[in-house]
Structure formats: C-alpha cells, structure tokens
Amino acid sequence: MITASDLCPGDCLTPALLTAMDPVSLRDAFQAALPLKHVEAAVIERAKYKPGAKALLSARVRVAGETIEKLYALRVLPPGKGRARYERALGETGGAGVLLLEGIDAVAWAFPADLRIGGLAYLADPKLFEQATLPELARALAPGGSIEAWSSEVVHYAAEQSCTMRVRLSGQLASGEAFGRTIYGKCHADGESGRAVQALDNIEAALANERERAFGIARVILEQPQLGIQWQEAAPGVQLEMAGFFDSALGQAERVGAAVAGLHGLPVKLDAPPVAPDLDRLKRRL
C-alpha cells in the first residue's frame, strides 16, 4: 500500500491520491456516486502507482443493508480526464457497475468487472463458476464421484493484476466415501497465467534437488488457460518469511531463490550479499 511519502512531489495525481487514501474522503466520493445507498465505509487495500499517468487502486466498500462488502477497481487519472474515461467505460460495459468518483478524478469498476483480468467473472461469479468450472473440478478431484456443496470467498484482489478465491468443496468419491477439500483459484491479467504456472513448475523442479525441503508449494490441480485461471490445492504450513528465505536461498539453494523471484517477475542477483530490505516499507506497499 502506498503512503503520502511514496508520492512524487508536484505529480498531478498527488491531490487525488491523498484524497483516496483518506477513508472519510473516499467514503464521501462513493456516497456521491451512489446517492440511493448509504455508504458506511470505504478503504483502499492495494495500490499501483505510475507518477503522472495513472494509479490503480483496489477498494473495499461497505453499504448499509448489504451483508457483503463490495470490491472496486479504481483508475485514478490526471485532472480533467476522469469523465471522458467514465463515458467510454459506459459504452464498454453497458453501464453496469461503473461509477465516476468526481472528487478524485477516478473511474470505479465493481468486482468482478476488471479491464485486464478477462476471466475474472468465471472465477468470481457463482453462476459462471458452476457452469464452466465446477464440472472440471469434479473430474480432477473426484473422478466418477460428485461435488454436492461448495462455497467461495475472495482472498486477494489486486485491480488489473490478479485475484485469488478460496473455494471449499464437499461431495462423494466414486467409492461412495465422503470428501471435503479446500482449493484456491488464481486468475491473472490476460496473458500472465501461463507465465505464473511455468514459474511454479520451475520452483518445484528446483526443490526436487533439495535433500531437506525448507518449504513447499501448492500443487496445481487444474489449469484453464482459455480463462487465465489455475487451481491449486491448499498447502499445509505457514506463510513463507521472504527475507529469511532469501538469506537461506543465498547459501543453500540459489536456483530456488531465482525461481521464486521469477514467479513474482523480480530481477534477482544472488552472487553478492543482499542489502537488508526495509520490511516496513514493503508491508506498506503490499
């Protein structure tokens, strides 16, 4: 997550981003765009900032009387360009779920609408999920059996970049035995899914040469390349502490560190001692 200290002095986007980062001002902007509803709260969860051009924000909005908070993908544009982009968005989507936040010169798309994650609706929309994905998951997880119940929730959403859903399934195997599984569906921006799967394969290949694995990765159980979606099983354990991992990788398994960096599209140089990262700054950006 960005803070005021991350903004470039004199950047035309700075005033709008400072407004967006203030929960009260952001709530007021959504309230003005949703006059028939009562907006109780709005907060920015993730941000991607390109000085002088645009910022991509992921916002969570709570509306009175609705049990589930809504997610929005926001494009913050240079002053005066928000309305033109909004009118173009109306033509692209038919107007469903698109808002103009005039107070911050931003256009907001209601989840699961997203400009770059083309397959997101097949991951997040219950009807499309049941039609396009549930039968394939049943064949992958319980061949000859059936999935009888399921539920899903958003774990992570970065506007125009990626989304992860947690899905809990239960049903019967072909033997008649009951089963329950938790899996994760990951959808990437158009054209990025294959690269992510290849990076995971590279990590697994690097780990195969380790006598004692320090960590593991979740197995990919189903790929839907036409939708840009991959499904992985839930992996036991705790979240990897990246700083400690790279220290370990430097001395024990450089190829594993390089593979993990490849997954995130990060350049990495392992032939010299790394500079200790500013963990507080990294947490703010994430």
Features:
alpha+beta, 2 domains, 33% helix, five-stranded antiparallel β-sheet, 10 helices
Tell me what you see in this structure.
This protein is α+β, with helices and mostly antiparallel strands. The protein has 2 domains: 4-110; 116-286, no CATH class. It contains 10 helices and 10 strands. The strands form 2 sheets. It has a 5-stranded antiparallel beta sheet. The protein has a 5-stranded antiparallel beta sheet with strand order 6-7-8-10-9, sandwiched between helices. A hairpin with a 6-residue loop joins strand 2 (54-63) and strand 3. Helix 7 packs antiparallel against helix 9 (254-263). The termini are close together. The model has no long low-confidence stretch (mean pLDDT 82).
> Radius of gyration over alpha carbons?
21 Å
Q: What percent strand? A: 25-35%
Count of extended strands = 10
Shape: globular
- What proportion of the residues is helical, as a percent range? 25-40%
Structural class from helices and strands?
alpha+beta
Provide the spatial order of strands within the biggest beta sheet.
Answer: 1-2-3-5-4
SSE string, helices as H and strands as E = HHEEEHEEHHHEEEHEEHHH
Task: Give start-end ranges of low-pLDDT stretches.
Answer: none
* Residue-averaged pLDDT: 82
Count of DSSP helices? 10
Describe this structure in a few short sentences.
This protein has helices at 14-20, 23-33, 82-93, 120-124, 126-132, 134-141, 193-207, 242-252, 254-263, 279-285; strands spanning 39-50, 54-63, 70-76, 98-101, 106-110, 146-158, 162-172, 178-188, 220-224, 229-233. With 286 residues, it is an alpha+beta fold.
